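Title: Comparing notes on inverse folding

I've been comparing how different people in this forum approach sequence design from structure. To keep things fair, I'm posting one structure and asking everyone to reply with a full sequence. Here's the target:
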């Protein structure tokens, strides 16, 4: 059996997806399957306030745009995403535009002392993987941002803390909680980790701003959390590297049998591919063997020829609505039954 070499880019969202559904990570990151059509309304609507903050804080740095001008741009952007016509929620309802406009007003009311918007962190080697992160806002810190207790820690560790704050805007309604803790805090630890690895310094404070609720979740970074996060990253990357074939990428435990629209599957862009994989009439062992065989073939100069044969024989592919391209060679085998694969092999012999 050949061992798959994984070198895809990690991010906070890749890690979260991997924890929720490894199979989804396989589709998205390993075989780079083209995403299926899915509900885009929430993502697009959430993007609108983010773009408004960029306009307000970045494009009009010294002479900030007026609220009236911002509203005009907001309306244009909302319409460009078709959020007032066809871009609807899963129940075919339009999203409440004014709620998202209120999000803009709440965000602006925070009067953030912005240093940089949309800052990109890139680390090229975290346990063998590139690691990327985008921070919505980096702000300038002042004494009032920290409690007395935190200031004592900062003053004791002068070289450890920068003079920066980190902010992330959120347009989801309810901050997820577990055991009385906001689980999204992990995202702030992730940003602090990126900052520490890149600059050797931790931000003075990190914030999640829940715009719909006007709720702020705060986090004061510590080295202890960074070290714990690093251990977790090491474990996850080891787990990823231990995977040898499709069957090792475990589907979500929250998936109800024959239901790909619950829990984490709700927003998944690979429902059809997932269903296809589950519907295969061949056993997992057969898939593993064929995959190993195929992986070997992809190393071979004939690999592209084999793929062309599959491409020419699209009728063999069960669901033509799925977009397949040459990058998806490996995934293609999951759309074929054993008989179909054997038929292709037989045709090659002719
Ligand atoms: S449909 Fe559900 S189980 Fe299947 S890949 Fe997507 S999230 Fe995972």
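Reply #1:
Here's my take.
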């Amino acid at each position: 059996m050949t061992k798959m070499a994984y070198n895809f880019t990690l991010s906070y969202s890749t890690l979260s997806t991997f924890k929720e559904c490894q199979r989804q990570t396989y589709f998205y990151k390993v075989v780079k399957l083209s995403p299926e059509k899915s509900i885009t309304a929430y993502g697009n609507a959430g993007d609108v306030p983010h773009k408004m903050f960029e306009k307000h804080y970045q494009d009009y740095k010294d002479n900030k745009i007026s609220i009236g001008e911002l509203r005009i741009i907001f309306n244009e952007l909302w319409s460009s995403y078709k959020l007032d016509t066809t871009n609807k929620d899963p129940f075919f309802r339009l999203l409440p535009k004014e709620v998202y406009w209120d999000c803009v007003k709440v965000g602006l009311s925070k009067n953030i002392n912005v240093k940089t918007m949309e800052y990109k962190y890139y680390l090229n080697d975290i346990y063998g993987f590139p690691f990327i992160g985008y921070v919505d806002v980096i702000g300038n810190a002042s004494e009032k941002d920290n409690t007395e207790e935190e200031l004592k820690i900062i003053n004791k560790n002068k070289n450890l803390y920068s003079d920066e704050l980190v902010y992330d805007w959120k347009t989801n309604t309810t901050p997820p909680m577990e055991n009385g803790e906001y689980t999204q805090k992990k995202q702030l630890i992730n940003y602090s980790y990126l900052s520490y690895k890149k600059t050797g310094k931790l931000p003075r404070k990190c914030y999640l701003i829940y715009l719909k609720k006007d709720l702020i979740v705060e986090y004061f970074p510590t080295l202890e959390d960074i070290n714990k996060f690093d251990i977790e990253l090491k474990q996850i990357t080891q787990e990823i590297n231990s995977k040898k074939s499709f069957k090792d990428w475990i589907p979500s435990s929250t998936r109800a049998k024959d239901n790909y629209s619950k829990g984490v599957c709700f927003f998944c862009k690979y429902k059809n591919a997932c269903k296809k994989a589950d519907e295969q009439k061949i056993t997992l062992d057969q898939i593993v063997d064929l995959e190993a065989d195929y992986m070997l073939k992809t190393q071979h100069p004939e690999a592209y020829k084999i793929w062309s044969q599959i491409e020419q024989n699209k009728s063999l592919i069960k669901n033509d609505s799925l977009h397949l391209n040459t990058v998806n060679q490996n995934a293609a085998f999951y759309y074929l039954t054993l008989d179909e694969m054997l038929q292709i092999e037989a045709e090659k012999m002719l």
